[in-house]
């Protein structure tokens, strides 16, 4: 076994690398275990071991072989890491088990192409070094925020949301943390390959994280903390949109809120009101009067039909939105990112036969995208930057919404993925966004995880999952801007591109000749 790994790590000059089947299996395994570095498992060291194995498997491989190895890694990564989709497709989509698994496998193959192209480009154009592998990894993570409308999940940096390397988050965001993680992973392989000098940059990066954590970019405002109550209604997903259950849903949320009137802010989760505002105006008026009477601001998720815009465009304009009303509060935020399989089904007209139970779900009926320059909600003279459900997984979108805000608020409905790792991975992303932007995050969900997260990304309080609950907290408003809030992802992206340009410019010629002869 020792001899096998020696051959895998460092094939002798002119020696044929180990048979491709073994690197493919190792890569598949490495991708499959990566998600266990994230919530709820938190085996953070797997976020280093997993890419380290991939890096080792690519040594002296041709670009075509690297593509196959990368694809194997990506399939393992996404099939296991995003298997929580099975619950939404099979349980709530009423799709049989075999077809559900097949759909996830197809998704894993498609998303696995990111890793496949990444490894192909790495072996085709660049020398074998951590300083080319890590930049490519980060650029392809960044690409996942916008290619195919974006599926920004399973980033290496999330494994260190509350440990060791998270000091880089307020400076360079999750991609900065990912960059450091991948350099450390590759350096581990180099050290095992007797290139001991890689211990020095590794030590510098780890110590740098500690040093970065000593900086405080934001500070607490002098005014009193905001007294906030979050309402978790725990409405089952298979009942949520049924006409006969709508009034019961409203009763549950109104009843849970009875004891909270008089506090500064009450927040209901995403689409906690399962009807358009035009269909339930008397209820909204009653709640608004109650809120003003008690001196409380009320923020709720609600499907919103913009009738004026619909008239102007000649088509129905529906939005997944957050509305603020009540005492000293106003504003409407329309969701900007509509996510496949979380809110709507891509090519839904072609897939109705695959997911028959979704035909009557309003959340799947084609919401419109909100504008990118929306103002924060105004609540008790505080600006609340908003994110609805999956939007919080997009670092730059959350950064834009956090600009000029005192708090961040996100509402979600993760009932689609009850009992899986999905909601906890989602919460971990909220923690990273709070740390990147130096703001407290108010998170209200239907079934969990409802929580208060401080400006360092730590969970201060959270409600039990899958239960009706009220979560109370007192949150200080923050002022100031982190370096990440000012500069976005540009520092990491620019450094990554520069490293790749240098790597391409000074790549060993003999490697290119070897590739040509192999083809």
pLDDT < 50 runs, ≥5 residues? 358-364, 511-519
What's the CATH C level of the largest domain?
Alpha Beta
Question: Structural class from helices and strands?
Answer: alpha/beta
What CATH calls the topology of the largest domain is Nitrilase/N-carbamoyl-D-aminoacid amidohydrolase
Radius of gyration: 24 Å
Pfam family, one: CN_hydrolase
EC number: 2.3.1.269
GO molecular function: N-acyltransferase activity
Subcellular location: Cell membrane
Tell me what the structure shows:
It is a single chain. The chain has helices at 2-9, 21-34, 46-57, 63-81, 85-92, 97-125, 130-143, 169-192, 199-212, 237-240, 246-257, 281-294, 307-313, 348-351, 395-402, 422-437, 483-487, 490-505, 509-518; strands spanning 219-220, 226-232, 265-267, 297-305, 318-326, 329-330, 332-334, 377-379, 382-388, 407-412, 441-445, 451-453, 459-462, 469-475, 478-479. The strands form three sheets. Strands 6-8-9-10-11-12-13 form a seven-stranded mixed sheet. The protein has a six-stranded mixed sheet with strand order 7-5-4-3-2-14. Strands 1-15 form a two-stranded antiparallel ribbon. The protein is an alpha/beta fold. Helix 8 (169-192) runs antiparallel to helix 9 (199-212). 49% of the residues are buried. Residues 358-364 and 511-519 have low confidence and may be disordered. The longest helix is centred in the first third of the chain and has 29 residues, at 97-125. It folds into two domains: 19-216 and 487-506, no CATH class; 226-474, Carbon-nitrogen hydrolase (Nitrilase/N-carbamoyl-D-aminoacid amidohydrolase, 4-Layer Sandwich). It is globular, with a radius of gyration of 24 Å. The two termini are 30 Å apart.
